[in-house]
Design goal:
By secondary structure, this protein is mostly helical. It is built from 13 helices and no strands. The longest helix is centred in the middle third of the chain and has 16 residues. The N and C termini lie close together (12 Å).
Length: 206
């Protein structure tokens, strides 16, 4: 995976205007967000990662890869539910993964067209799919399309990091966190990535 072409500009501007981010950017020098280049894999990983820790999500994903060989739409569609459950997936997540796999396999998931949509329009469209809420759609924008200005405030990790670094660990309201994040535009995805890294040694990658 290679860093987006805007990464150097984004980190330079964020470091100049935000002391917290400057410290994190220096701490994680040489590391960056990257796209795996596979739309299905990114959505599938995001579904796997819903409401569990990064470490737990990686463990489930590794088990899927071991059992299926490759996590492709065809492999997910063909796998028995018992095999998928043995990897640590709930019945609901299995249902979501199979629905997305079917859409990719039959071509109704039009990734080429998705690339042409602005962030909010694409989020609206993605959230019409089974199992895709705003958080999952935002992960797709950040990790597949590498959109630079996404602020996934529903993410518990991001909330924790903002409270830790900007309010000494004390709770903040969502409007207050949104106000803090507004100062990072147009590089809110980049700021989010560094804040995630400050909490978890396992890279956030979907």
């Amino acid at each position: 995976m290679t860093a987006p072409d805007y990464w150097a500009t984004a980190t330079s501007e964020l470091a100049a205007r935000d002391a917290v981010l400057k410290t994190l950017i220096l701490r994680f020098d040489g590391l960056a967000l990257g796209s795996r280049g596979d739309a299905f894999s990114t959505l599938a990983r995001s579904i796997v990662g819903q409401q569990i820790s990064v470490k737990a999500a990686q463990s489930v994903w590794d088990a899927l890869c071991a059992r299926l060989g490759a996590v492709t739409p065809e492999a997910v569609k063909a796998a028995r539910a018992t095999r998928l459950r043995a990897c640590g997936l709930s019945r609901q997540k299995i249902d979501y993964l199979r629905d997305i796999a079917s859409r990719f396999a039959d071509g109704t998931a039009d990734v080429g067209r998705w690339r042409e949509l602005d962030d909010e329009t694409l989020i609206t469209e993605l959230t019409q799919l089974k199992g895709i809420g705003r958080w999952t759609a935002e992960m797709f924008l950040i990790f597949y399309l590498t959109r630079p200005d996404v602020l996934p405030l529903a993410d518990i990790g991001l909330q924790r990091a903002i409270c830790l670094h900007y309010n000494r660990g004390r709770a903040l309201t969502l409007p207050r966190m949104r106000g803090i994040g507004a100062k990072w535009a147009p590089w809110r995805s980049v700021a989010t990535w560094y804040l995630w890294r400050s909490l978890d040694p396992v890279p956030v990658e979907y």
